[in-house]
Specification:
Layout: H1 2-24, H2 28-55, H3 61-74, H4 78-99, H5 101-110, E1 116-121, E2 124-129, E3 138-141, E4 151-155, E5 158-161, E6 172-174, E7 179-180, E8 185-186, E9 191-195, H6 203-226, H7 229-251, H8 255-269, H9 272-291, E10 294-296, H10 299-305, E11 308-313, H11 315-319, E12 320-331, H12 338-349, H13 355-367, E13 375-380, E14 384-389, E15 392-397, E16 407-408, H14 410-421, E17 426-434, E18 437-450, H15 454-463, E19 468-472, H16 477-487, E20 491-493, H17 498-512, E21 514-519, H18 525-530, E22 533-537, H19 543-548, E23 551-553, H20 560-596, H21 600-619
Parallel strand pairs: 11-19, 11-21, 16-18, 19-20, 21-22, 22-23
Antiparallel strand pairs: 1-2, 1-3, 3-9, 4-7, 4-9, 5-6, 5-8, 10-23, 12-18, 13-14, 14-15, 15-17, 17-18
Length: 628
């Protein structure tokens, strides 16, 4: 529907420009035709909405805009009426574009949950719709598939990527007795899972419900603003009718000058400057932000950002890069260098799809190391990998990977593991076995490192007037607190499920007022929707986060957040000035018309002057740049 409205708004603009150009050329017929096109297409949807309101025994701004435009036409000012209708139709297009966000966000969320599960029935595995799966049923999830329902593992071992729900940067090993959530992704092994919750109560279903609830709360606020439509429209129409009826019936004034004066009054009182004051400023701010890599999804978002006093960051993929990297290399064997240990580990892990293995291979490539071909590769789920290189067996894994074997130098290796874990790193032990026995070669540690701009962004946020900065994450407390310290935030909240993030956002709003949530994952979607301002990372963000958020950082540049907050506050100040000018002009002209009979040309000059003034004031925002 909005596409049709956009086409009509474009035709109205074409008619407006064509009519004005023809008027300048003295072509009266062509000018009238151009304005007729602008009136027809610019006022079509407004007229329909106005008539619909009348059928429901109410009056709204749509009807007032049409009447004001017709009034302008009646007193010989067709350009003003055409411009009014074009601006009003354009604002309606922008509003309707924004309405679909909730529906798109919910659709993207629903795609995360499989429609069917492979359920055990009478000794066979049968594909069954998730709605038909009962609590207690057992379903199987193959490697790489999404978990359809919440449950507990009864058989199998695998790592499960829970980033979509918890934000954990590292896949979590799962085995018998461990809980898994619908919407998460199974890694290299199959799992048999016993259902603990029906489809409607699964983790992903709760996320969907939270997004719907949070976005409906925003809609209620918008409805409160809409209540001012009726009184204003009725007041202007009533004042115009009184200006016509009172002189005619009261003291027998001539009709033509009375009607002329009443139409002048309607034009003066019509909110043309008010209508353009907001789009002129807000659309200029949106355009300026877009050129700087910040996408606002609507005009209301620009205004909401101005009230932000607290900012909550997700950790994985937001404050951090969202990609595991090799951070520490500790050789323990005599004569073994850092490069030697990395090259050896990369030779073994080249065949693995594990995220730590990929990080090791990337580091070896970055260092330009030669990686040998390994043979007899084997992987143990949740523990590690091993392979044969030059007659030696090289193993890489967590401390459990060496359980039950005699490994020389293991105590020193485990001490390094404990030290690195204290720094919120994931550490693995590299061992080598031959005919003489097995010995520890070294320890390597991995982490999802902080974005280079994170700490500077926090500092600039405080300089921009933000009073409280926190981290909300589903990751473990040790990892989250290490990242929080490095970023310089005020508080860290860890081990959070999506609903807990929403509760904390509401607590922050109760204490600080406006709260911005910055995130990139499915698990962030409810918090993004619940916050005063949801900000998504556009480069690595999930579709759900991008659809739910109010603002998208197109280049994943956290440094744009202080810029967008400053821009929104500048926009709010501009809007306040524009509204004061618009209302002031209306009041002065109406009082003058009623008091001394302001002539139509002066009313047009005053009305047009205020319109041009607020337009130019709003257009100044086009020059707003991120000047770091």
């Amino acid at each position: 529907m909005w596409r049709v409205e956009a086409v009509f708004a474009g035709l109205a603009l074409a008619g407006l420009v064509g009519g004005l150009w023809a008027e300048w050329q003295g072509a009266a017929v062509a000018s009238a035709a151009g304005y007729a096109v602008a009136y027809a297409f610019g006022g079509w949807f407004g007229l329909r909405a106005g008539l619909e309101s009348l059928r429901e025994r109410s009056v709204d701004i749509d009807l007032l805009m049409v009447l004001a435009a017709l009034g302008a036409l009646a007193i010989g000012a067709p350009f003003e009426g055409a411009m009014l209708l074009f601006l009003f139709s354009l604002s309606n297009v922008l509003q309707h574009v924004a309405i679909g966000r909730s529906r798109r966000a919910i659709g993207a969320l629903m795609e995360l949950r499989p429609d069917a599960a492979l359920v055990q029935r009478d000794g066979e595995w049968v594909e069954t719709p998730v709605e038909a799966v009962a609590v207690g049923d057992v379903f199987r999830v193959r490697p790489g598939d999404r978990v359809p329902l919440d449950g507990v593992v009864v058989e199998g071992q695998s790592e499960v990527d829970q980033a979509s729900l918890t934000g954990e940067s590292v896949p979590v090993p799962k085995g018998a007795g461990d809980e898994v959530f619908g919407g998460t992704t199974v890694g290299g092994g199959a799992l048999d899972v016993r259902v603990t919750k029906p489809a409607g109560e699964s983790a992903i279903a709760r996320v969907i419900a939270l997004v719907e609830d949070a976005q409906s709360r925003k809609a209620e606020t918008q409805r409160l603003i809409d209540r001012f439509e009726q009184p204003y429209a009725l007041a202007v129409i009533g004042m115009t009718l009184v200006a016509i009826a009172l002189p005619l019936l009261g003291w027998g004034a001539p009709f033509r000058p009375t009607f002329y004066r009443a139409m002048t009054l309607m034009v003066a009182a019509s909110p043309c400057a008010l209508v353009i004051s907001t789009p002129a400023a807000v659309l200029s701010a949106i355009a300026a932000a877009a050129r700087s890599g910040v996408l606002f999804k609507g005009g209301a978002t620009v205004e909401e950002a101005a009230g932000v006093r607290a900012v909550a960051f997700d950790k994985t993929g937001t404050l951090t890069a969202g990609q595991t990297r090799l951070t520490d290399v500790v050789p323990l064997a005599e004569g073994l260098t850092d490069d030697g240990l990395v090259a050896l580990a990369a030779s073994v892990q080249a065949r693995s799809e594990h995220h730590l293995a990929r990080a090791t291979v990337r580091e070896a490539e970055a260092r330009g190391l030669d990686v040998e071909e390994a043979a007899a590769f084997e992987a143990t789920a949740g523990r590690g990998v091993g392979a044969s290189i030059g007659g030696r067996v090289v193993r890489i894994g967590n401390p459990q990977h060496v359980d039950g074997r005699e490994v020389a130098g293991l105590d020193a290796a485990l001490a390094e593991v404990d030290r690195l874990r204290g720094m919120a790193r994931t550490a693995v032990v590299v061992t080598e076995a031959d005919a003489a026995g097995e010995r520890a070669l070294g320890v390597m540690a991995f982490a999802d490192i902080l974005r280079p701009t994170a700490a500077e962004t926090v500092r600039r946020l405080r300089a921009a007037g933000v009073e409280h900065v926190v981290v909300l994450t589903g990751d473990t407390a040790a990892v989250a607190e290490a990242v929080g310290r490095e970023a310089g935030v005020d508080a860290v909240y860890a081990d959070l499920l999506p609903e807990a993030k929403v509760e904390l956002i509401r607590e922050l709003e109760a204490r600080w007022g406006g709260v911005a949530m910055v995130g990139d994952g499915v698990n962030d979607a409810p918090a993004l929707a619940a916050a005063t301002l949801g900000i998504a990372m556009g480069g690595g963000g999930t579709d759900v986060a991008l659809e739910t958020a109010d603002v998208v950082l197109m280049g994943d540049d956290l440094g744009k957040i202080p810029y967008l907050l400053r821009l929104s506050r500048r926009t709010r100040r501009t809007l306040a000035v524009n509204i004061a000018i618009s209302l002031g002009a209306i009041v002065v002209m109406v009082v003058t018309i009623l008091g001394v009979g302001l002539a139509l040309p002066l009313a047009v000059v005053g009305h047009e002057g205020s319109t041009v003034l607020v337009s130019l004031n709003g257009l100044r925002l086009l020059g707003a740049r991120d000047r770091r």
